[in-house]
Design goal:
10 helices; 8 strands; 264 residues; alpha/beta; binds NADP nicotinamide-adenine-dinucleotide phosphate; TIM Barrel; 41% helix
């Protein structure tokens, strides 16, 4: 996937949310060993250092995020530099969410604009390969653009079968913003879906592979997490394509999983 600034990004990422620091090194080593070329971490996962400690990051695209509670220019720069120290290089830096997680829905746009100005300066100074947001809606991305003339290059959103965030999805496609699909398995809940299971039988694949392929075939970049070697390996074995008819059918499904309090 080529970003709007020409930077190339792998079309599938390894997620590390809820991987304890003590397990992050082994999981990321397994992921890289089996061919993942992107690791998605965040300061708030508390595992940045461990994610890269066992791997040669030369050929791995490193994504991390500014914790959602920091909404000033200076905090953005300070925390970017702390993450950079731990990771060695940052290919993509994201604002984790438009509001602190414990104050969802709060209007923090003035702060987000200050943070976005810091991100633009870090990018212009060549300290990071690409910049973007996570969990942002179209009006919020619009405001960043109007204030700085710079669109987010990526929006990482909660996206899976039955949870397409169609307004945000369409806005990103229209504006050439790459969509990273987080929780492509709905944090595993989607694996119990009867529709997904039937599709897996049809393609002779696992439900997880259907969910991951769905993201790829709808032009998003799935970020999938596992700590189990067999699953890590199988989740990358998605070299097949869903038929247009099946994509249409999966697109028509209603939310089947999780009403967790994330933005959906
Ligand atoms: N930007 C944001 O706000 C945000 C929010 C949430 C997530 N994310 C990112 O997106 C990544 C993925 O999302 P996620 O962690 O919510 O969930 P996910 O990737 O949708 O699902 C992971 C869950 O499914 C299980 N699993 C994985 N592969 C499997 C397989 N082949 N068969 C059966 N079970 C399988 C995992 O268990 P095991 O580990 O036991 O295998 C884990 O419980 C995160 O790690 C993080 O990097 C970003």
């Amino acid at each position: 996937m080529k970003l709007m600034n020409g930077v190339e990004m792998p079309n599938i990422g390894f997620g590390t949310w809820q991987i304890e620091p003590k397990d992050a090194k082994a999981s990321c080593m397994m992921a890289v060993k089996h061919g993942y070329k992107m690791i998605d971490t965040a300061e708030s996962y508390g595992n940045e250092e461990e994610c890269v400690s066992g791997i040669d990051t030369k050929d791995v695209f490193i994504v991390t995020k500014l914790p959602a509670q920091y909404k000033t220019y200076d905090e953005a720069v300070i925390h970017f530099n702390e993450s950079l120290k731990k990771l060695g290089r940052i290919d993509l830096y994201l604002i984790h969410a438009p509001w602190p997680w414990n104050e969802q829905g709060k209007d923090c746009m003035e702060g987000n604009i200050m943070v976005w100005k810091a991100f633009c300066d870090l990018y212009k100074a060549g300290k990071v390969g690409a910049i973007g947001v996570s969990n942002f809606h179209p009006d919020e991305m619009d405001m960043l653009y109007k204030a700085t003339g710079v669109m987010p290059m990526v929006n990482q959103i909660r996206y899976f079968i039955g949870n397409r965030q169609i307004d945000t999805y369409n806005y990103c496609i229209k504006n050439n913003i790459a969509i990273m699909a987080y929780s492509p398995l709905a944090t595993s809940e989607l694996l119990e879906s009867e529709e997904v299971k039937k599709m897996a039988v049809k393609y002779n694949k696992t439900p997880a592979q259907i969910c991951i392929r769905y993201c790829i075939d709808t032009n998003t970049i799935p970020v999938v997490k596992s700590t189990k070697e067999e699953r890590i390996k199988a989740n990358l074995d998605v070299d097949f394509k869903l038929d247009d008819e099946d994509i249409k059918y999966l697109n028509s499904l209603k939310p089947q999983a999780s009403t967790r309090p994330y933005r959906s």
